[in-house]
């Protein structure tokens, strides 16, 4: 009796030494829920519709800070059309939220971190190639940062298309943020160095290239992971504020960021400097920016007799695809840019955003646009559910689809080459995680088999861990 008890206790000790090595991994601790505004239905009905009304009202205000360029096309029928498209997106998003993904084990944070390294090094290489003329010479960097040298956009780059790989950066930040904040994985030195380097390079890109969206693209995945994760030990008040109010809480920060980037571009102009406060200037410029985008889109739609079917709003990345593919597709669709001629005749080249709502309608028609926005919202909702459950496909693609909803007033984000680059980066990350998952399963099974064989030879049965049973 005593010997049997000793045998069982020794077997338990042996299992306690081996089992943690087999099963200890960072995974999502439980099924978490995104806040209301992270869903397509919530962002469309709870934020975009009120903002649409606010922007439309701003266009009627006569104030020095608000600038409406060109002819006015954004009348009540176009505002109602925009509202219908948003409601259709919200309805499709609600349907997508009812689709519950097949339950599966969440991704391990260590696998996400390793995939982030692959994507991050590609983005780092692209930055080094794209900015080589303004990055490796300290004196040139000094001149740029002090404002003594401001190169034009056409003078930057020329890296043979490698600049499209810059847009791997948002996927890198999504993987890192999910691994660190949701899975609570400790980031190693290499990953931290990549994180710092790509953050600094993105800030440099925003300053040098005047590309505000680049910083928003890396901040959004971090915010999404942060509000999904369990409450942090610090900053719980801010965390609850963002969980509850989301885009409304972020709106002052967004306007401030917009104003800072506009400081050197417009604040010094005679029309603004000394005639209004900087806060009013930033808010007015922000409202003008989005009102003019909607007005441009309404103008393009009103001056288009029928759908062009050029697919330049939903598949612009294919029109610009290299290796002759883009040229062949342009010839097939009879592509002719609508935006440039419209701005030259009716608008202002400075405010050149065409709106992500009306441009799609002028491209593929009302029925096509309703179907397009419904499909995008439905897919976004399904990806959000996968994101909540720690699925790698949702982790890498959901932020881009959510960004397409946030940017819907400005331009059709998903049709842009930058969105296609993120899709490519996401597929690379998914492939990496799948390979490492299979490799890890085989390795763990081999370890279990070896441990079971040793235990069997010692006269003790070795039960297979529950998580490895099929």
TrEMBL record:
Transmembrane residue ranges: 36-58, 78-97, 118-145, 165-183, 190-207, 213-229, 241-260, 357-383, 395-413, 419-437
Highest taxon in the source lineage: Bacteria
Taxonomic lineage from the root: Bacteria, Pseudomonadati, Pseudomonadota, Betaproteobacteria, Burkholderiales
Protein name: Oligosaccharide repeat unit polymerase
Keywords tagged on the record: Membrane, Transmembrane, Transmembrane helix
């Amino acid at each position: 009796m005593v010997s049997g008890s000793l045998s069982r206790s020794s077997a338990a000790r042996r299992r306690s030494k081996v089992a943690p090595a087999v099963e200890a991994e960072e995974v999502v601790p439980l099924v978490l829920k995104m806040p209301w505004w992270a869903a397509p239905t919530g962002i469309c009905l709870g934020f975009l519709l009120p903002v649409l009304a606010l922007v439309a009202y701003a266009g009627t205000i006569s104030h020095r800070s608000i600038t409406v360029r060109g002819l006015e096309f954004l009348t009540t029928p176009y505002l109602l059309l925009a509202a219908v498209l948003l409601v259709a997106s919200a309805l499709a998003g609600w349907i997508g939220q009812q689709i519950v993904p097949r339950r599966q084990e969440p991704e391990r944070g260590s696998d996400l971190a390793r995939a982030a390294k692959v994507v991050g090094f590609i983005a780092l290489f692209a930055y080094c190639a794209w900015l080589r003329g303004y990055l490796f010479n300290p004196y040139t960097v000094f001149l740029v940062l002090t404002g003594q040298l401001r190169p034009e956009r056409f003078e930057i780059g020329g890296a043979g298309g490698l600049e499209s790989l810059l847009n791997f950066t948002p996927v890198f930040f999504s993987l890192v943020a999910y691994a660190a904040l949701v899975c609570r994985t400790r980031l190693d030195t290499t990953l931290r160095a990549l994180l710092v380097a790509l953050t600094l390079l993105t800030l440099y890109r925003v300053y040098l290239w005047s590309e505000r969206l680049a910083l928003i693209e890396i901040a959004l995945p971090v915010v999404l992971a942060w509000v999904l994760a369990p409450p942090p030990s610090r900053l719980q008040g801010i965390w609850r504020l963002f969980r509850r109010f989301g885009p409304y809480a972020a709106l002052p920060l967004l306007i401030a960021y917009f104003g800072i980037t506009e400081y050197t571009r417009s604040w010094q102009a005679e029309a603004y400097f000394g005639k209004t406060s900087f806060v009013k200037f930033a808010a007015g410029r922000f409202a003008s920016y989005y009102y003019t985008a909607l007005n441009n889109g309404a103008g393009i739609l009103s001056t288009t007799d029928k759908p062009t079917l050029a697919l330049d709003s939903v598949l612009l990345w294919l029109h610009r695809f290299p290796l002759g593919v883009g040229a062949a597709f342009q010839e097939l669709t009879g592509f002719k840019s609508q935006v440039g001629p419209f701005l030259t005749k009716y608008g202002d080249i400075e405010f050149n955003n065409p709106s992500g709502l009306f441009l799609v309608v002028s491209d593929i028609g009302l029925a096509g646009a309703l179907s397009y926005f419904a499909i995008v919202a439905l897919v976004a909702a399904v990806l959000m559910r996968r994101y909540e459950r720690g699925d790698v496909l949702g982790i890498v693609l959901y932020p881009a689809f959510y960004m397409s909803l946030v940017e819907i007033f400005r331009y059709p984000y998903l049709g842009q080459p930058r969105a296609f680059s993120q899709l490519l980066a996401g597929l690379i990350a998914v492939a990496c995680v799948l390979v490492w998952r299979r490799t890890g399963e085989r390795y763990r099974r081999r370890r279990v088999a070896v441990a079971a064989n040793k235990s069997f030879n010692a006269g003790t049965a070795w039960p297979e861990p529950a998580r490895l049973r099929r």
